[in-house]
Every structure is written in structure tokens, then in C-alpha cells.
Design a protein that fits this description.
Shape: elongated
Radius of gyration: 32 Å
Keywords: Hydrolase
Strand order of the largest sheet: 3-2-4-1-5
CATH class of the largest domain: Alpha Beta
Pfam families: MazG (PF03819)
Helix content: 40-55%
Largest sheet: 5 strands, parallel
Number of strands: 5
GO molecular function: nucleoside triphosphate diphosphatase activity
Distance between the termini: 84 Å
Number of helices: 13
Oligomer: single chain
EC number: 3.6.1.9
CATH architecture of the largest domain: 3-Layer(aba) Sandwich
CATH topology of the largest domain: Cobalt-precorrin-4 Transmethylase, domain 1
Number of domains: 4
Structural class: alpha/beta
Protein name: Nucleoside triphosphate pyrophosphohydrolase
Strand content: 5-15%
Length: 340
């Protein structure tokens, strides 16, 4: 015989508040509605005795029971109109919420009100903290990662940068997201290694702090009193503040000579043009000097010679594939019987 449905005129069903917090926000920094719920609750429960919020809740005078009741026990604890707050663990209490859903679906219980109350929120960029934590553990525990150096990882930085460029040129959004992550990994990995330097250590926070300061200084039209109405104005601000920072004696300073040849030639031509220098291109026989002239001409015309050459090479690659497709033996056909 099935149990009778609960009577509607029974005791008030009460209220369950599932309080969630972000581990990326400092413990104790909770929203005002969350503090109100905690202070006015008849009972506060937490299944994780090591939950980072517990010391701060107790310091604020909130009594917390370290308990993990089953769904039916929790419903019973709310009988008579009581409010029970459950401080969710990092997993979000899926077993408890599933159990409450089953009870509600059975029709055999008068269910309390159930409220999901986010007590703290991730700010944009908060997942970067996860990356830093994961990288720290990998550096400590992984036999391969723990032995890597800046020098040993350098080639991967170059490879990932090229793969990012390829994703951009292919217009592949999914690949772009993944390659951006791979490039970001290189930054965090190098910063983690740098923390261990015995003489000049620095951290990922130092890296981020440095680029933030640089961006603010080089954008006085955004963070200061200067104005910029056009992209050309912005570039002028950037070049002027960069020159003040670097105190360079030559326009060639800061141009990495190890970059691909066309990009190097275009960068030098850009520096010369921007500085207003009259430097004739060296004239000598040979393909190298012809390519130099082409790169300078492309830069003057607003064309990235590296990108232009890659596009042409891709077209050549496609032509090769098409030729191979047309000349490939048909299935089951011997190669020496192919016509042409």
C-alpha cells in the first residue's frame, strides 16, 4: 500500500538555502544577502570540515554544524517553518540536490522552499587563478614539468605562437580559443619557473603588474588627460611614451634579429619610416636584397609581407593537394595504369 500524500494543513515546510561560494574569492568576502541568511538561519550545515569559509563564519558568530544530512533528514530539519542553510562544498552538493529532487517528485513529502544563494561571484578573469594553481602543482609534482627551464621551453613558445597565427588566418574560432590557451600556458609556465630563480625571482603577479602599468602609461588618452580621436593619434601616443620608457639611442633597438626574415625586414622599414629617416635600401645582387626591397615596399603599402607570403604559400599548398588528388590512382587501380 502506498503512503498517503502529506496533508496541506500540516506544519509549515520551512526553507532550505543552498549557499554557494567561489574558491577564487577570498573567504569571508560574502554578499550581504548571504550574511543575512547565515545570521538569521535556525541551523547552518557544512559537510566539509575543512571548508575555507568556516573559520570566517565562526569568527562572525555563525554556529556551523559539520554534518552531511541526507535529503529526507534535511527536509525533516526544516519542519515547523525552520530555515536551514547548507554551505555547499566545492562540488556543489549534487547528491543532496538530486535527493531533494527525488523527494519532491515522489509526492510523499511536503517540501520546504529551496533557494540557491550565490554568496560570492567570480570576477572576469577569475579562472586565471585556477591556471596558476594548476601550474604550481604540475611544477611541483610532474617529473617532466619540474625539470623544465626557460631555455628548454623557448621552442614551444615559438611553436604555439605560430599555431595561434594559423588559427587566426584559418578563421577557426574553436582552434583560436585552444591556441590562445596554449600561448597563455607558456606565459604562466615561464613565470612559475622564474619564481625559483635564486637571484632575481619574479612571479606571474609581477608579470601582470608590469604589463598593466605599461598599458596605463601608454594610454594617456584613456587613463590620463590627453585625447586621441583617431588610430593615428593613439599610435603617436604609444610611440612617444615607448620612446620615453626605453631611452633608446637607435630605432633598431628592440627589433629581434631572430624573427623570420620578411618580418625582420618589414619591422626595420617600419622603424625607419616612422622615425622619418632617409635610409636607402642597400643595393646588391641576390635574392636576399630583392626580398628586402619587396618587404619594404609591402610595409610602406600597409601589407604584412609575412602574412602575404603565407597566404600565397597556402594557395600553393592547395594547388599541390589538388594535383595530387587528380593524379592519385583510383581505388583498386595499379599506379602504372594511371593515364597521363
Amino acid at each position: 500500500m502506498s503512503a498517503a500524500a502529506p496533508q496541506a494543513d500540516g506544519p509549515a515546510p520551512g526553507r532550505i538555502v543552498l549557499l554557494t561560494t567561489s574558491h577564487r574569492v577570498a573567504p569571508g568576502l560574502l554578499s550581504w544577502p548571504a550574511w543575512q541568511a547565515l545570521h538569521t538561519a535556525d541551523r547552518v550545515l557544512c559537510a566539509d570540515g575543512a571548508h575555507p569559509q568556516l573559520p570566517y563564519l565562526r569568527e562572525a558568530g555563525v554556529a556551523v554544524d559539520e554534518a552531511a544530512p541526507a535529503a529526507e533528514e534535511l527536509v525533516d530539519a526544516c519542519a515547523g517553518g525552520l530555515t536551514v542553510v547548507v554551505v555547499a562544498t566545492g562540488e556543489g552538493e549534487p547528491a543532496l540536490t538530486d535527493g531533494l529532487a527525488r523527494l519532491a517528485g515522489s509526492g510523499r513529502h511536503r517540501m520546504p522552499d529551496l533557494e540557491l544563494l550565490p554568496a560570492s561571484y567570480d570576477l572576469p578573469g577569475a579562472r586565471l587563478l585556477d591556471l596558476v594553481q594548476v601550474m604550481d602543482r604540475i611544477r611541483t609534482e610532474c617529473p617532466w614539468s619540474s625539470r623544465q627551464t626557460h631555455e628548454g621551453l623557448a621552442k614551444y613558445g615559438i611553436e604555439e605562437a605560430y599555431e595561434l597565427v594559423e588559427a587566426i588566418e584559418d578563421g577557426d574560432r574553436e582552434e583560436l580559443r585552444e591556441e590562445l590557451g596554449d600561448v597563455l600556458l607558456q606565459v604562466v609556465f615561464h613565470a612559475r619557473i622564474a619564481e625559483e630563480d635564486p637571484e632575481e625571482p619574479f612571479s606571474v603577479d609581477d608579470v601582470a603588474g608590469g604589463i598593466v602599468a605599461k598599458l596605463i602609461h601608454r594610454h594617456p588618452h584613456v587613463f590620463g588627460d590627453e585625447t586621441a580621436a583617431t588610430p593615428e593619434d593613439v599610435k603617436a601616443h604609444w610611440l612617444r611614451t615607448k620612446a620615453e620608457e626605453k631611452r633608446r639611442t637607435s630605432v633598431t633597438e628592440g627589433v629581434p634579429l631572430g624573427q623570420p626574415g620578411l618580418a625582420l625586414a618589414a619591422k626595420l622599414a617600419s622603424r625607419v619610416r616612422t622615425a622619418g629617416l632617409d635610409v636607402p635600401l642597400p643595393a646588391a645582387p641576390g635574392v636576399g636584397y630583392e626580398l628586402l626591397a619587396l618587404a619594404a615596399r609591402a610595409e610602406a603599402g600597409g601589407v604584412d609581407p609575412e602574412a602575404a607570403l603565407r597566404a600565397a604559400a597556402r594557395a600553393y599548398r592547395d594547388a599541390i593537394l589538388e594535383t595530387e588528388r587528380r593524379t592519385r590512382p583510383a581505388a583498386g587501380q595499379r599506379p602504372d595504369t594511371v593515364e597521363g
